[in-house]
Design goal:
about 625 residues, five-stranded parallel β-sheet, seven-stranded mixed β-sheet, about 15% strand
């Protein structure tokens, strides 16, 4: 009998900064171990290398984290010249215990922060720099093409914005006060870090003694971990932080209701990666959504001071954000000065997911760019309709089931499997377990685990067939369809058709209302008919599916794009290359609006378009 495995989180790095130490002189092992322990009090992850080539390779593989590189022993100029321009590398530190080893070429590289003769002085500088990096790193989605015009009220937005909104809706609307899994995960992550271990003990025992903003403002792991996860969309980590995220959002919302907000300008000075700045600069008049909780100040001079400090880093652009809010805004933002014991100025905090209109940028004489932002609630009408549709499919009382559905929609199959498995752990009724086993099977199939997927499907089917307390004939259709699809993928056509026929029979009973499955069955059978050269019948099936989906789904639902793509494939096989291109382009137009840019469906359809065009040019 199939027994699902226990769900385990899959998070590699939980903070924004990694420390890399290339130490080519590890002669004193005891001193080296003591130094590593000191560094562990500064950063969560320390990567030690003795080989320069291996170190260089690792540096170029890092995508989302910033890197601080320590060099000791033999300081190789060739190594520095090779890695100093790496996108994620922020600073280089020369560690020369006991004596300052200065090379004339050090001054050629602005990334070299300094020479340090003691680990204590090095750790002090690292702590300052990590704090600055964490402040500067904000996650934002630029909604390209959202510049207003006179012919349309619509603002086409990056689909990532919609999925972030769905995540927030899951977290903010479902009551859940269990923080034990967060504590256990953090204890595991920060084992050996004395300060963080102490902080974890305090927050476990005294969480309700302080406000969420108070905990957020502490210069400890919680602030860093949460904003990294929000910035990089690490949903498995955000799940663990879900209760705190909701509490912090609720405190901002509560404070906002108690405060009289008039038209106000807020400021934020910081450094921004050049690529990110260019995305803002080229989208003047458009929209930007910031995924982090977002602190700002009423003090322009203090914000300017931060911006001037950022000019030292040549990889960044110094910016001063000027943010205008009006008194009737419904976007959660509040004056949190009293709740933050570390704040020396009046601080306003925006909740996650705030949207701003980008004004006209201007460059000040001292190389600081002013970025005007106006708080807004503008949203794209088509994406809004799709978001509302998905909300209904992610409103279950089991929050892990909702997370699993979101991850599946994003094609994050591994994370989807994780959440579905975790959801299954708390379910006891056959109805809910059968649904989750079915979902786990879908994720496993996408992960290339067909045997495990089939075991899940048959276990789900067994629960439905053996249930004595429900007439579930119609509900079986979806599982039959999934089994058939798996067999079809393995090119076991006879078995696929057997189960498709079972699914069609089950879905043909009186009162069956799952039109979505009926459409899916039509397209699935159409793909088999296409492979058999029965193009007319395949096209007939697809047109039935398309009619259902256009009637029942939002205009830019990805399933409509899938239907267009299947029709395109039929046309291509019939030799109608122009029609194939027409339909695959319709699919891509929807994909680009409804899916992230790296989604496999969009990539597949784009590749198909290239193939169809190539064949047309050769014909």
């Amino acid at each position: 009998m199939y027994k699902p495995e226990k769900a385990l989180p899959k998070v590699e790095y939980v903070e924004n900064v990694l420390i890399i130490w290339l130490n080519q002189s590890m002669s004193n092992r005891l001193t080296h171990e003591i130094s590593i322990n000191q560094l562990k009090q500064v950063a969560n992850v320390i990567k030690i290398f003795s080989d320069a080539e291996e170190c260089e390779t690792f540096i170029h593989t890092v995508k989302d984290e910033k890197l601080l590189v320590i060099l000791s022993g033999n300081i190789d100029k060739n190594f520095v010249s090779t890695v100093h321009s790496a996108k994620q590398l922020e600073l280089i530190y020369i560690f020369s215990p006991g004596r300052a080893k200065v090379e004339s070429w050090f001054s050629q590289y602005s990334e070299i922060q300094g020479i340090y003769t003691t680990m204590t002085s090095l750790c002090e500088q690292l702590t300052k720099d990590i704090k600055k990096i964490n402040y500067d790193l904000i996650g934002f989605t630029v909604m390209e093409g959202s510049v207003p015009n006179t012919t349309s009220k619509s603002n086409p937005q990056d689909a990532t914005f919609m999925y972030d909104h769905l995540f927030r809706n899951i977290v903010l609307t479902i009551p859940d006060e269990n923080m034990q899994d967060m504590f256990e995960f953090c204890e595991q992550q920060y084992r050996g870090n004395v300060q963080e271990e102490k902080f974890i003990k305090i927050i476990k025992t005294k969480y309700t003694s302080h406000t969420p903003v108070w905990w957020y403002s502490q210069e400890m792991f919680l602030y860093r971990m949460m904003n990294k996860a929000l910035r990089t969309h690490q949903y498995d980590l955000l799940y663990l932080l879900r209760v705190f995220i909701r509490h912090l959002h609720q405190e901002i919302t509560t404070q906002q209701k108690c405060q009289s907000i008039v038209l106000k300008t807020l400021f934020r000075g910081q450094g921004m990666d050049k690529d990110d700045f260019e995305r803002l600069r080229t989208n003047e008049g458009g929209l930007v959504s910031i995924s982090n909780f977002f602190p700002t100040s009423v003090n322009r001079d203090a914000a300017l001071c931060r911006a001037r400090e950022a000019r030292k880093n040549k990889k960044k652009v110094s910016i001063l954000m000027e943010i205008k809010i009006n008194g009737n805004t419904t976007i959660p933002v509040a004056n949190m000065t009293g709740a933050n014991p570390h704040s020396k100025e009046e601080e306003w905090l925006f909740s996650t997911g705030s949207i701003f209109r980008v004004g006209s940028l201007k460059r000040l004489p001292d190389r600081i760019w002013v970025v005007p932002l106006i708080l807004t609630d503008n949203e794209d009408e088509q994406l809004d309709a799709l978001k509302d549709y998905f909300k209904k499919t992610m409103a279950d009382r089991n929050i892990c089931l909702n997370f699993g559905s979101l991850m599946y929609q994003l094609a994050s199959w591994s994370k989807s499997e994780y959440f579905f498995l975790k959801a299954l752990e708390s379910e006891t009724t056959w109805q809910r377990r059968s649904v989750l086993l079915n979902n786990i099977g879908l994720a496993k199939e996408e992960l290339g685990k067909p045997d495990e997927a089939l075991a899940c499907y048959f276990k789900s089917l067994e629960l439905k067939l053996n249930a004595a307390d429900s007439d579930n004939t119609a509900d079986i259709a979806s599982t039959y369809n999934n089994i058939a699809t798996l067999y079809h993928g393995q090119k076991i056509i006879d078995r696929a058709m057997e189960y498709y026929e079972k699914a069609i029979e089950a879905s043909s009973i009186a009162g069956y209302k799952n039109e979505g499955l009926v459409a899916t069955l039509n397209t699935n059978v159409a793909t088999i008919l296409t492979s058999q050269g029965k193009y007319a019948k395949a096209l007939e099936k697809c047109k039935k599916a398309l009619a259902i989906r256009l009637k029942t789904l939002p205009a830019i639902h990805p399933a409509i794009a899938t239907t267009y793509a299947i029709i395109a494939n039929i046309m291509y096989n019939m030799g109608s290359h122009v029609k194939a291109i027409e339909y695959i382009q319709k699919a891509i137009d929807i994909d680009q609006l409804a899916l992230p840019s790296d989604h496999p469906q969009l990539i597949l359809h784009t590749n198909n378009l290239s193939i169809y065009k190539q064949h047309l040019s050769n014909s």
